[in-house]
Amino acid sequence: MARTREKLTLLVAAVAVGLLLAGGAVAIDDLVTDGPGVGADSRPVGRAQGTYMLSSQHEEVIVVSITVVLTAGPYNGSTLVVAGRDRIYDQTRELAVVGGTGGLRGASGYVLWTTAKVWSEVHMVLELDVHASVPLPDEDDDDNDVLVLGSRDA
Ligand SMILES: *[C@@H]1O[C@H](CO)[C@@H](O)[C@H](O)[C@H]1NC(C)=O
């Protein structure tokens, strides 16, 4: 089944509060805004929820597994699932967009992830430059394409 794909770019910034290097793993629930700061000129647009896990014996590498839930804009209520390896002292890290829900269902692509501002060892602003494509919904979506596992009338 061929599907048209739509490109979209979202620019979001997350405030990450973690005790990562001390503890090895941290669960996060961070504010996502649409600007690079947390000032009056950037609106809250969602939350980033998930885990950062220190995952290398030799260097400061974490494995990220987060879901960004959007709470404003055209994708309000949709989520974007981001996963990958973050070598935290690199200028730019590339992580994967591995999926999404709602208006972002089936999203795939990548995120260019940078540390925009460091306030302390556990408090910083991350800039997530999201490049993802989303399959267009089928015009005649009548569930004929749904694969039913274990159906008796196959
Ligand atoms: C986002 O969607 C929720 C639930 O439908 C709604 O209550 C809220 O007002 C929306 N927020 C914005 C900023 O549109």
Automatic annotation (TrEMBL):
Family classification: Belongs to the plant dirigent protein family.
Keyword Secreted set for record: yes
UniProt xrefs under Pfam families: Dirigent (PF03018)
GO terms for biological process, alphabetical: phenylpropanoid biosynthetic process
Gene3D superfamilies documented for this protein: Allene oxide cyclase-like (2.40.480.10)
Signal peptide: 1-27
UniProt xrefs under InterPro entries: Allene_oxi_cyc_Dirigent (IPR044859), Dirigent (IPR004265)
Localization, UniProt: Secreted, Extracellular space, Apoplast
Protein name as it appears in the record: Dirigent protein
Known role: Dirigent proteins impart stereoselectivity on the phenoxy radical-coupling reaction, yielding optically active lignans from two molecules of coniferyl alcohol in the biosynthesis of lignans, flavonolignans, and alkaloids and thus plays a central role in plant secondary metabolism.
An example Gene Ontology CC term for this record: apoplast
Keyword Signal: yes
UniProtKB keywords: Apoplast, Secreted, Signal
Assembly with partners or alone: Homodimer.
